[in-house]
Automatic annotation (TrEMBL):
Alphabetic keyword roster: DNA-binding, Transcription, Transcription regulation
Family membership noted in the UniProt record: Belongs to the LysR transcriptional regulatory family.
Single GO term (MF): DNA-binding transcription factor activity
Residues of the signal peptide: none
Pfam families reported for this sequence: HTH_1, LysR_substrate
GO BP terms, alphabetized: DNA-templated transcription
The protein's name in its UniProt record: LysR family transcriptional regulator
Annotated ranges, domain HTH lysR-type: 2-59
């Protein structure tokens, strides 16, 4: 009978190219790899690799074994995901990714409620401007600010984050009139916006169209440095209402002027998991709270 563990060694050899590299990838020494390969070849009564120029090249028999082993690897991974998704008690690790503004300003301050309700859940909250792949299981759950495009993923729109112009409270009287300009005085408080590669996002488009001069020489690629720059008195900008209203040192200059959709993405193989349901329910509760407060449409 073929031992699946021996197949792991075959796949490591073909992927790494040498016995020593295969051993390093598996956390064993070269002697162990050689022994396991020899045992498999003896059991199959077939040579699986030829050595050429210091590398191991699969024989025709080896190619057949590799094809079957890769197929089995995929099936076993799918089985593991399916079984892991059928737990009944919320517990275990959930990996969740989102942009820093949502992770830092929306999720992290409210994660205590999740742990209080579900003490057996562990949460990896990964704040990344780049998009981690739910498809490749880099994360179980993702919150996205663009409509998901991955095939086969479960996606649902949570709502639209509302953005309004804010300035530091002691500077708010330096802006005038309508559309983000409050009170009397000269409109000399600069608009802080995004760098060029983010010009298509709703906040940057609104500032480019509606925000009057001057523009700040500072341009950024994330909402957190915009918040810090506004708090430092470097200018005014559009902030999520849930962020601006939580900062006592800021004043909102008008009603919300634009919005941005938020999407929840879940891998289908864990959608039935109690731990995933628990985290998704926690997220839904947060957005229900924000809708009630007028911060999300």
């Amino acid at each position: 009978m073929i031992n699946w563990n021996d197949m792991r060694f075959v796949l490591a050899i073909v992927r790494e190219g040498t016995l020593s590299a295969a051993g390093r990838s598996l956390g064993v020494d070269q002697t162990t790899v050689t022994r396991r390969l020899a045992a498999l070849e003896e059991g199959l009564n077939a040579r699986l690799f030829d050595r050429r120029d210091g590398r191991l090249i699969p024989t025709p028999a080896g190619e057949e074994v590799i094809t079957r082993a890769e197929r089995a690897e995929v099936e076993l991974a799918a089985l593991e995901r399916d079984v892991a998704g059928r737990d009944t008690k919320p517990g275990g690790l959930v990996r969740m990714t989102s942009v820093p503004t949502l992770s830092n300003r929306l999720l992290a301050p409210r994660v205590g409620l999740l742990f209080e309700t579900y003490p057996d859940i562990d949460l990896d909250l990964i704040a990344e401007p780049a998009t981690l792949s739910v498809t490749r299981r880099e994360a179980d759950i993702a919150l996205r600010l663009t409509r998901p495009t991955e095939d086969g993923m479960i996606a649902r729109r949570l709502g639209a984050i509302r953005y309004a112009p804010y300035a530091r409270s002691d500077l708010a009287d330096r802006v005038d009139g309508a559309e983000g300009r409050r009170g009397a005085g000269d409109a000399d408080l600069a608009w802080i916006t995004y760098e060029e590669s983010f010009a298509a996002i709703p906040q940057a488009k609104w500032i480019a169209k509606e925000g009057k001069e001057p523009l700040s020489p500072l341009r950024v690629n994330d909402g957190e440095p915009i918040l810090q720059a506004v708090l430092a008195g470097l200018g005014r900008s559009l902030l999520p209402v849930f962020v601006g209203e939580a900062e006592p040192g800021l004043t909102r200059l008008s009603d919300p002027v634009t919005s941005r959709d938020v999407w929840l993405v879940v891998h289908p193989h864990v959608r039935r998991s109690a731990r995933i349901d628990a985290v998704v329910g926690w997220i839904d509760g947060i957005f229900a709270e924000l809708k009630k407060a007028g911060a999300v449409a």
